[in-house]
Amino acid sequence: MKIAIIGSGYVGLVTGACFAEVGIDVTCADKDSVKIENLKKGIIPIYEPGLTELINKNSEAGRLHFTNSVSDGVDGAEAVFLAVGTPPNEDGSADLQHVLDVAAEIGKCINNYILIVNKSTVPVGTAVKVEEAIRKELRIRGVDVEFDVASNPEFLKEGSAIKDFMGPDRIIVGTDSEKAHDIFERIYRPFMLNNYRLIYMDVLSAEMTKYAANAMLATRISFMNDIANLCDVVGADVNMVRKGIGSDNRIGNKFLYPGVGYGGSCFPKDVKALIHTAKLNGRRLRVLEAVEEVNNLQKEVLFRKLMSHYNNDIKGLKIAVWGLSFKPETDDIRESPALVIIDLVKKAGGIITAYDPIAMNECRNRKIDIIYAKDMYEACLDASALLLITEWKEFRIPSWPTLKKIMKDPVIFDGRNIYIRKELQDNGFEYYSI
Known about the structure:
elongated
């Protein structure tokens, strides 16, 4: 079986590598010729645990190929997965230009039945637009080729994407075509051997499911951050509250960890896009509007605690930052709370020295003007405060005596609540958390 993946970013590469791993012949196409040439050499443009090894393994086995030609990728494929970017516009809507451009390219080259699958996160109604773009090109060519457009949204967590793909909680498929149904059954059968998790529905519902899932998770995060800030005022321990409510099986304990807000490539833009979709249809999603507002404010909480500790004057103070990516096990800094906090500290006159195990090159590429340390302890040398922003494993049990010795002021601001207050106080630190 041969399939094509259009777009060789995060979703496209993980999808292509995992499909190839179960024996499917996969061609990944991307218009970025430099990226394609690097992929052919085994140079992977993103960091995801296990992905480099999986790509190289399947490339060497002849099951995974790379091209910068959409037509070459589509040629002979039974299904084409669209995994191109849908960045947010200024009004919060999803930019579908890349998706529709690829759809037009497909319409210019298909000659036999093919299944077009939207893997990108796209607003409700996008499948109809993709179909129209393809049919327009077919009319220009004067040919009549049968095809189907289906929705198959991804639910991958950065940092554990391969595990999520190979052993999914569920696979959502939106289609009313029997022919498409049969192709999906063949494609996903290797992933269903132990437990059948394919859920079929109409295309519009599948498109909505992706946004609704991310919006629900974002809501849980903002809710818990709101509760954490109230706990801070009344003297309650939010970690105890989290355990208390998480033990209720109607609630569960996932995504109830307070912190400095959510970031990344999905939650921020998907919440915005869903709010925008509601407005286009004469509705307001008031809960999600509040979720977004709470999250934006939450990214400033650690900075406000820092300023309060130093009586609103941090000019000339060296502030150490641990963690730049929006979460551990990724180099993704999109919408990262760290960038917001760094910007606020710099505007207040503080000097940032930061360390992250993976994401510093991404920050350098983005021209984030800070001092980059070679390790976590160098970042803290002569620092007046340490801000823990991303909970990488190597930050979990630092040497407190070493930090006490090298820091100018033993003050720690824990943005992920990973440390124990009494332990830090016993080691002579002032400790602030969420």
